[in-house]
From TrEMBL:
Phylogenetic lineage: Bacteria, Bacillati, Actinomycetota, Actinomycetes, Streptosporangiales
Highest taxon, organism lineage: Bacteria
Membrane-crossing segments per the record: 13-35
Keywords: Membrane, Transmembrane, Transmembrane helix
Full protein name: ABC transporter permease
């Protein structure tokens, strides 16, 4: 799968690496600001499970 993504990115090595980093950052931001806040009330975060 990663090879297919890498081949689909445009440009040379530097451009592909930069585009891959930007895409990874976008995925991380969507997870952090959209997915995790949406799912947090739906899961049980018991202090005994999380630990101190």
């Amino acid at each position: 799968m990663y090879g297919w993504i890498w081949r689909m990115l445009p440009g040379n090595l530097v451009t592909r690496a930069f585009t891959a980093l930007v895409l990874a950052g976008l995925v991380a931001a969507v997870l952090w600001y959209v997915v995790f806040p949406w799912i947090e009330p739906r899961i049980s975060l018991d202090p005994a499970v999380v630990g101190r």
